[in-house]
Write a structure and sequence with these properties.
single chain; 646 residues; alpha/beta; GMP Synthetase, Chain A, domain 3; 8-stranded mixed beta sheet; 7-stranded mixed beta sheet; 21 helices; 31% helix; binds ligand 6R9; nucleotide-binding; metal ion binding; magnesium; ATP binding
Length: 646
């Protein structure tokens, strides 16, 4: 064993949790040895209109490439998240909504009320032409109507594509067009940390570049004065008056699409990750239950935005499939003060908080007193997701926030995987700070070398998954070839995650970060190619190269090298302008943290930019630039080093 500290399973968790250490080994073993019966048994978690008789049917081989789960089953996802709970817990709170401004009152919706709201929303979508299989874009703040809109799509079989409210009009337009979406659901305005977000105005701007868009449904959230386009824009509250209260759920095949969610990759524009109905919901529900040992009565809080996969799977689908009480938070962790998260915990007696390392690092920096002045007595479990958690942040979460009594559930997964893949179970898994620990049932991780050789024992390599699991994405919307190419071509027969990983002597997995050109900024994925394309759109820019750099709060920051067109002068004003340009083109999360003007970029003789060198300079590690002799012009490196931006 290495010197890493180990936190054994607390006695009461071992006794009380659904799964203990022996239970985990048994379940995991069975899931790999007899996947057919294991998954058909698990499928009983859901309410099926027609129960499936086949579990997984898949091949990752190019000549027979296909992925299906429970393909002969029929169900409706919204009915599984709402209707089936009405008899047993109709009066239990399904959603607690905590507003941006703590002076305002929270709102609560029981399962019965959620049913009524979702039916009404579904009928408004239908009345405006949305049908099974249509793509509905949801560009919303974190208000209850966002949840209603998502579940309403699932109810009528429309495919939702939620676009994060922080994305720019251009990014929104691209996502509307890519999936030929004819309808957008939005709000007049959003609010975050006391500041308005002009959502409707952004949709108007996006509409100019998105000819497929025909209908915009606008929820009144802040009451701001917004322009309405006759014949295209509809106020939700007006439309809702004239629709029936009930909307029967549409029977869906298990493999019918549920949603598209755009995510950044190493090349080109964002990919529309497609998830289907049965397997996805099963995965979201099962992992929510296993990783967090969810029990009726527990107040569950996933502090993500529904614009990301974490919000899809762990604010909505997983918890609601399990009949949970799920908290939805409109605000930000640091406003009005860095105590906010812990105040919300106390206000609603939250049992589990699930958040990102970047938020923890930001709060940690503000000092322990912001935590100490709150009780947090209700907390039993703490979760993290989105990026590797550094052991200091892990320990702070464990000691300061959880006062040593709450296991930390570090869940590794991706938009593509639908739900947690490698993560502890509180009653089963001893913890090591910084490790996502062990695989979920049915997940077969392997570490491979660049040549694809499977590495055994304690080692480090590229992380692949050797078999399909129910929550796996099924395609890239509109580009099945890209799906295969991106994930299954590097290591034939295996799903390549894009992450590097170490496995220790105990079989624990330690994700080391992306090995492709994706950077992880505050737990959000950014493709370096996307930021580069935005920069070169600027009339004064000839070329740009973007790399990640270490950042103490965001995990990684964005470092951009920019070459201007001949005759253009660099200046601090232009630097500011370019940073704002990217912000406007993509959104605030893509704003470069550092921008260096570079007369030339280090290229090989064949014209390939040597990012390894750019990364080293961005990191400030200029003493080990390695071999630069293969560069077309080695002198550019001296200039880059001399003018590094810190
Ligand atoms: C859920 C989500 C996926 C990428 C993934 C990896 C990183 C996520 C992590 C983690 C280490 C964890 N990542 N969780 N790295 N430990 N617990 O974040 O999805 O936005 O698609 O990002 O995030 O690099 O490949 P997504």
């Amino acid at each position: 064993m290495s010197e890493v500290e180990v936190y054994p399973v607390p006695g009461e968790w071992a006794k009380r949790a659904r799964v203990d250490a022996a239970g985990y080994e048994k379940m995991y073993g069975l899931s790999l040895a007899d996947p057919g019966s294991f998954w058909l048994e698990q499928a009983k978690r859901l309410d099926w209109i027609k129960r499936p008789e086949i579990a997984g049917d898949w091949s990752f081989q190019e000549d027979d490439f296909h992925i299906q789960w429970f393909a002969d089953g029929k169900l409706n996802v919204a009915a599984n998240c709402i209707d089936r709970h009405l008899k047993t817990r109709g009066d239990q709170t399904a959603i607690i909504w905590e507003p941006d401004d703590p002076a305002e009152d929270p709102r609560r919706f029981t399962y019965k009320q959620l049913h009524a709201e979702v039916c009404r929303f579904a009928n408004v979508l239908k009345a405006n032409g949305a049908r099974k299989g249509d793509r509905v874009t949801i560009y919303m703040p974190m208000i209850p109507e966002a949840a209603f809109a998502v579940l309403a799509c699932a109810r009528i079989g429309a495919i939702h594509s939620v676009v994060f409210g922080g994305f720019s009009p251009d990014a929104l337009a691209g996502r509307i067009e890519d999936c030929d979406s004819t309808m957008v659901v939005t709000a007049d305005e959003g609010r975050r940390g006391g500041k308005p977000v002009a959502l409707k105005a952004n949709v108007d701007e996006a509409a100019k570049r998105a000819p497929s868009l025909r209908t915009v449904i606008v929820v009144k959230a802040t009451g701001a004065d917004v322009a309405m386009t006759e014949g295209r824009d509809i106020w939700y509250h007006e439309a809702a008056k004239s629709v029936p209260a009930d909307c029967p759920p549409e029977p869906m095949g298990a493999e019918d699409p549920l949603f598209i969610l755009y995510t950044s990759g190493s090349t080109g524009k964002p990919k529309g990750v497609l998830h289907t109905s049965g397997g996805y919901l099963l995965w979201a529900g099962l992992t929510h239950e296993l990783c967090f040992d969810y029990r009726p009565g527990d107040i569950w809080w996933c502090a993500a935005d529904i614009g990301w996969v974490t919000g899809h799977s762990y604010i909505l689908y997983g918890p609601l499939a399990n009949g949970a009480t799920t908290l939805m938070f409109e605000g930000v962790p640091t406003w009005p003060t860095p105590s906010r998260i812990w105040e919300v915990v106390d206000r609603h007696q939250v049992h589990t908080v699930f958040t990102a390392p970047t938020a923890l690092r930001a709060l940690m920096k503000e000092g322990d007193e912001w935590v100490a002045k709150t009780s947090r007595g209700s907390l039993k479990l703490l979760g993290t997701v989105g990026e590797p958690i550094n052991p200091e942040a892990w320990r702070w979460y464990h000691e300061v926030v959880g006062e040593g009594r709450c296991p930390i559930i570090d869940t590794w997964w991706q938009t593509e995987t639908g739900g947690a893949m490698i993560a502890p179970m509180p009653g089963a898994t001893a913890l090591k700070p910084g490790s996502a620990t062990r695989p979920m049932p049915g997940v077969e991780p392997q570490l491979v070398d660049p040549g694809g050789r499977v590495l055994d024992g304690a080692t480090e390599g590229n992380l692949v998954i050797a078999r399909s699991w129910p929550g796996q994405m099924r395609t890239v919307w509109g580009d099945h070839a890209r799906f295969f190419q991106t994930y299954f071509s590097a290591y034939p027969g295996k799903y390549f995650t894009g992450d590097g990983c170490r496995r220790d002597e105990d079989g624990y997995y330690w994700i080391t970060g992306r090995v492709d050109d994706v950077i992880n900024v505050s737990g959000h994925r950014m493709g370096t190619a996307e930021v580069e394309s935005a920069l070169v759109l600027h009339p004064q820019v000839a070329e740009a190269a973007v790399v990640g750099m270490p950042h103490d709060v965001k995990g990684q920051g964005i470092y951009a090298y920019v070459t201007l067109n001949a005759g253009e002068e660099s200046s601090d004003d232009l630097r500011t302008e370019l940073r704002n340009w990217v912000r406007k083109e993509i959104g605030p999360i893509a704003t470069p943290d550092a921008l260096q003007f570079a007369p030339g970029l280090p290229k090989t003789r064949s014209g390939k930019i040597m990012r390894r060198i750019l990364r080293k300079i961005a990191e400030g590690d200029v003493s080990s630039l390695g071999d630069t002799s293969t560069l077309a012009d080695p002198t550019v490196v001296d200039d880059l080093v001399a003018n590094r931006v810190s």
